Amino acid sequence: MTASAPHGPVVARTPGELRSALAGAGRVGLVPTMGALHGGHRSLVRLAREHADTVVVSVFVNPLQFGPDEDYGRYPRDLDADVRVLAEEKADVVFAPATETMYPAPQMVTVDAGTMGERLEGASRPGHFTGVLTVVAKLFHLVRPDLAVFGEKDAQQIALVRRMVADLDLPVEIVGAPLQRDADGLASSSRNGYLSEAERTSALSLPRALQAGREAAPGGADAVRAAARKVLDEAADATPPVQLDYLALVDPATFEEAPADHTGTAVLAVAARVGTTRLIDNTSVPL
Ligand code: PAF
């Protein structure tokens, strides 16, 4: 175990170092991340702090959740910068294992994300949620947290983690942290750094589409979908264009498409590519 900065968090690289760092830790809160920490992550750490005596942040770019043509290779990695952010946020422990530590052999047994894991993000990124749930289950076993904080930006991810915890009787409380937006309205994401200025301007059609959908809520589910789609259709002709992957209004617990007469809360979710960057965003819509 190495203390990386005066008064900074302890950086643990192995399960053994993690166990020593957590001796007598009291109530432990885990914030799982892939690093490249931004304002959204800071809010997760702060929320964890409200619920826990000791806050552990894992920093691990999980190869299992990336498809062969995705950005695993170019995903931003700067542990020193992440530790500086976590020192500012007064996290107690950073767990940053090497890939060989997490996966000493090819992973044979995985956590199947079921049919919910095949919809939306799962349809566009086959195997993604199996990779996510498998690493989250491993992190839960290694850290043994009392609670874990996940961002609601990844709405389908947190719904699946909640379902895994329920279905597998895992003794971890799941806390959702509200989606954070940058000053211009774009959902905060580690991938925003890939965008050129012009791409970022086009990408702002995503939050605009969600806002249009919310405003159409009194007209019902189909009106929400139509209003959001209109904004994205226009964005498809912008320069650079926004290439829509999916736009869906879904039941928040199952991620099944909400029927036209849906009442209660629904999630309006969008994924699109701008240049080579794939972005997701969502909002909840009261119907
Ligand atoms: O949301 C993320 O950053 C990742 O999917 C997670 C939960 C850290 C698992 O690798």
TrEMBL record:
One of its GO terms (molecular function) is pantoate-beta-alanine ligase activity. Homodimer. CDD domains: PanC (cd00560). Beta-alanine binds at residue 65. The active site is at residue 41. Belongs to the pantothenate synthetase family. InterPro entries: Cyt_trans-like (IPR004821), Pantoate_ligase (IPR003721), Pantoate_ligase_C (IPR042176), Rossmann-like_a/b/a_fold (IPR014729). NCBIfam families: cyt_tran_rel, panC. The keyword Protease does not apply. Coiled coil: none annotated. It holds the Pfam family Pantoate_ligase. The reaction proceeds by a bi uni uni bi ping pong mechanism. Its EC number is 6.3.2.1. It catalyses: (R)-pantoate + beta-alanine + ATP = (R)-pantothenate + AMP + diphosphate + H(+). Its main location: cytoplasm. Pathway: Cofactor biosynthesis; (R)-pantothenate biosynthesis; (R)-pantothenate from (R)-pantoate and beta-alanine: step 1/1. This is Pantothenate synthetase. It is found in: Cytoplasm. The gene is panC.
